[in-house]
Design goal:
The chain is mostly helical and about 300 residues long. It is built from 14 helices and no strands.
Length: about 300
């Protein structure tokens, strides 16, 4: 009698609830993708039609959700070994792997098709690239191969502003590339601050995160170096003239906060206090990125309504 069941190969029907399918989409990550894509869309020289903008953002949201579903399908084996991810729908057994894969592929297809038909094929191609990069380059290849996984793989999370701008204009611009750069440089100090606290989880799962390969002290140095690079990169929208003084003030204060927090991570290396400081830096990094894009979005909305350009 075979000991291999249908669920072992991820093909069984699980009777999962709607909330399990929602969890597959990684709603918090999806909301960040939509928010940053909105900023890219508003960077367009001419205001985009509201219906086109809404459809584009919805397609980007679905594409981001597809990334989450495909990631959870492939990573189920390591997710069940980590406390942070063991409760996800696939590793917990509430949803079969084959269902997650099918769900992710269907969402991928329709999100790219919708964006291509309703906006343009450059935006659709960039969304397809985002999904492919996140699944194949980051999840399947880099995540299990190198401690640089989150650096190189972070490009996938940085692409939504470019997708949003392309959806509005059918082209790319320096402003969309700068928004890409901000998220790209932000990702390592953000994620490695959490990885310092969760290094045992990653070690148990065999994922070569920076603290497990380079050691925690070398990782702390990298966090500080990236924060030092992030502060001026965050100021670029104001320096280059496509953001206003409110953005410049928030970027300057937030960049200083990132440097200070990362310096504290670098300085305090032992005990529970070091973990608390790393978690605080992780949380602050989320606030920093949200504040940058929130002010950028608000400034662009005001500019569209009033016709005032900096």
């Amino acid at each position: 009698m075979s000991l291999v069941t249908e669920s072992d190969v991820g093909l069984a029907s699980s009777g999962a609830s709607p909330s399990d399918y929602l969890a597959l989409l990684k709603p918090r990550v999806m909301s960040l993708a939509v928010f940053t894509a909105l900023a890219g869309l508003l960077m367009a020289p001419q205001p985009v039609h509201p219906v086109l903008g809404l459809i584009s953002l919805l397609a980007i949201a679905v594409g981001a959700g597809a990334c989450g579903a495909l990631n959870m399908w492939y990573d189920a084996d390591i997710d069940r070994l980590m406390a942070r991810t063991a409760g996800r729908p696939v590793p917990s057994g509430r949803l079969a792997g084959g269902e997650a894969l099918a769900f992710g592929l269907v969402l991928s297809f329709f999100s790219v098709l919708t964006l291509g038909l309703c906006a343009n094929w450059l935006a659709a191609g960039l969304l397809a690239l985002t999904i492919f990069y996140y699944l194949v380059v980051y999840t399947i290849w880099l995540k299990r191969a190198t401690p640089q996984n989150i650096v190189v793989g972070g490009a996938a999370g940085a692409l939504p502003p470019m997708v949003g701008y392309a959806a509005a204009t059918g082209s790319l611009s320096l402003s969309s590339l700068v928004l890409f750069a901000i998220i790209f440089v932000w990702t390592p100090p953000h994620f490695w601050s959490l990885a310092l606290v969760k290094s045992r989880d990653y070690g148990r799962a065999g994922v070569p995160m920076a603290p497990n390969v380079w050691g925690p002290n070398a990782t702390r140095t990298q966090i500080l170096l990236y924060a030092l690079a992030l502060a001026p990169v965050g100021l670029l929208p104001w320096m280059l003239g496509f953001a206003g003084s409110a953005y410049g003030a928030v970027a300057a204060l937030g960049g200083a906060g990132m440097i200070f927090g990362s310096f504290m991570v670098f300085r305090v290396r032992d005990g529970d206090r070091a973990k608390k400081i790393a978690l605080r830096n992780f949380s602050f990094s989320i606030l920093y990125l949200f504040a940058l894009f929130a002010v950028l979005v608000l400034e662009r909305i005001v500019a569209i309504w009033t016709g005032v350009v900096w």
